Amino acid sequence: MRKASTFDYNKKYPSISDLKRRAKQRIPSFAYDYIDGGIDEERGKHRNREAFHNIHLTPSYLTDVSDIDTSINIFGKTYDLPFGVPPVGLGNMMWPGSELALARASQQANTPYVLSTFSTTPMEDIAQLAPDVCWFQLYTPREDAVMKDLIHRAKHVGFNALVVTLDIPVGAKRNRELKNGLQLPFKITPNIIWEAITHPQWTLATLPHGSPEFVNVVRYNTDTDMDLGEFISNFMVTGVTQERVAQIRRLWDGPLILKGIQNIDNALAAIKLGVDGIIVSNHGGRQLDAAPSSIQSLKELPDHVHQKLTVMIDSGVRTGLDVIRAKALGAQMSFSGRSFFWGMGAMGNAGAQQVINIFRDEITRSLQQLGCHRFSDIDKRWIS
């Protein structure tokens, strides 16, 4: 149980919006735009935020709210906080050591940390640092043997859940990344040099570590004539099928989660395939600009899905109040990649704890304001 709190974080950046503004000043534009950018005109990204603002909750007073319980039990485990760090590739590009700092902070806070297949820190290091909270996100490889090996490695080192991403059947054309010349392998261009010169804090911190690399998958590039960019482009299947999910289900005996669900039929298929949970997501507005907002898709899920699956959400979450709004619509856990990596860009490794403390404080205060003692009690009855 958590008492009414003081502000146990740097009050210079009291919100995720403040961290975003500072990150934009402190890190190169190619790194900032990689995290902040969406697809095409970025309408989907903005729609994610606006849709959260349309969820209204009615407070109930005449009750003592001194003690607040922010915990949630999913997949047979109790987490102290109902939000976590989602998978983000190239995490250490935002700030060197970001992925380790986030894993360490997540372990201390007892909240999930999901490592991307395309992380820049070895999965073995993350599992050792965050043994109780680490989940592994799988971009399904084209080659069967590679998929089996990645799943075996994740199981062997102790990841607690496997998250299979569905919503990248093909690579995205993101205009900001194209303009910035962000490509793999990294190439030194006049723009990159200028950005390094004009962002000295980031440059001095990054230089000792060198260019980030996809350390978990480079071992599978056995073609010496194929550069990293071409290898990554050919790494994933062009669309994860139900047959592939069934195969993954046979290989993984722990909690299995499908990320990127917006279609109701896909959610129903997940139930039939024996999946344990889904993350409702439009990939942060980074894949299809016409996709509905994540919160709208969450609204439309039938009760049957919530009864059979652990439903979670990402895309558009920026405040503790958003986490509560999502819970009122049935999301047991929320994730926010941009929030955490803006925190890293703004404050370096200290940003991990800053973001966790901001969300913890906002969730606690919002529950107190609503007159609700336990986060787990929030449901659609609170919606106006």
Characteristics of this structure?
two-stranded antiparallel ribbon; alpha/beta; 384 residues; 8-stranded parallel sheet
Q: Largest sheet, order of strands side by side?
A: 5-12-11-10-9-8-7-6
**Helix coverage percent of residues?**
40-55%
Low-pLDDT stretches: none
Which structural class matches the secondary elements?
alpha/beta
Q: Mean pLDDT, as a whole number?
A: 94
Major pleated sheet: 8 strands, parallel
How are helices and strands ordered from N to C?
EHHHEEEEHHEHEHEHHHHHEHEHHEHEHH
Strand content: 5-15%
User: Which outline best applies?
Assistant: globular
Count of separate DSSP helical elements: 18
Describe the model.
By secondary structure, this protein is α/β, with parallel strands linked by helices. The chain is built from 18 helices and 12 strands. The protein has helices spanning 16-26, 29-36, 43-53, 91-94, 98-109, 123-129, 144-157, 175-180, 190-198, 200-206, 228-235, 242-251, 264-272, 294-300, 303-308, 320-328, 337-347, 350-370, and strands at residues 2-3, 67-68, 72-74, 77-79, 83-84, 113-115, 134-138, 162-165, 256-261, 277-280, 310-313, 333-335. The strands form 3 sheets. It has an 8-stranded parallel β-sheet with strand order 5-12-11-10-9-8-7-6. A hairpin with a 2-residue loop joins strand 3 (72-74) and strand 4 (77-79). Helix 16 crosses helix 18 (350-370) and helix 17 packs across helix 18. The longest helix is centred in the C-terminal third of the chain and has 21 residues, at 350-370. It is globular. The mean pLDDT is 94.
